[in-house]
Inverse folding.
């Protein structure tokens, strides 16, 4: 049996965990919508669902000392309503901007690193050597 204080902690943790889960779903949704690979669009949600089920089970098991209560689902639903009503619109905008900045930075890093990996002199040398090897065969 839990005290009132412990029950309040469980309620708050459940709601915060629900907001965390739903924000993760939105982040993955943004990543999936901006991915062109069809295999990733199928595999990522499957992995996400399995991972979220596992994390939710471990979270609730540790939070409630092994008890899986039905009101956890109620508080996760309340968290969904709070997230969807107040947070989702702004959160998605922020995450989309962060995603765009990260993609831009990644492209800039590739531009900087690419000449070191694929220098023109090395590529000319490799092409010339490949032609010589083909002529010898």
């Amino acid at each position: 049996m839990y005290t009132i204080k412990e029950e309040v902690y469980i309620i708050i943790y459940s709601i915060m965990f629900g907001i965390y889960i739903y924000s993760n779903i939105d982040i993955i949704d943004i990543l999936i919508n901006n991915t062109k690979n069809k295999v990733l669009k199928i595999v990522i949600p499957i992995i996400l669902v399995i991972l979220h089920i596992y994390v939710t089970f471990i979270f609730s098991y540790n939070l409630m000392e092994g008890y899986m209560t039905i009101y956890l689902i109620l508080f996760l639903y309340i968290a969904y309503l709070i997230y969807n009503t107040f947070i989702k619109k702004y959160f998605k905008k922020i995450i989309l901007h962060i995603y765009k900045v990260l993609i831009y930075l990644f492209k800039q890093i590739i531009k900087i690193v690419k000449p070191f990996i694929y220098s023109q002199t090395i590529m000319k040398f490799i092409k010339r050597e490949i032609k010589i090897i083909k002529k010898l065969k």
Q: What stands out?
A: The mean pLDDT is 86. The helical segments are 4-33, 38-63, 71-117, 120-136.
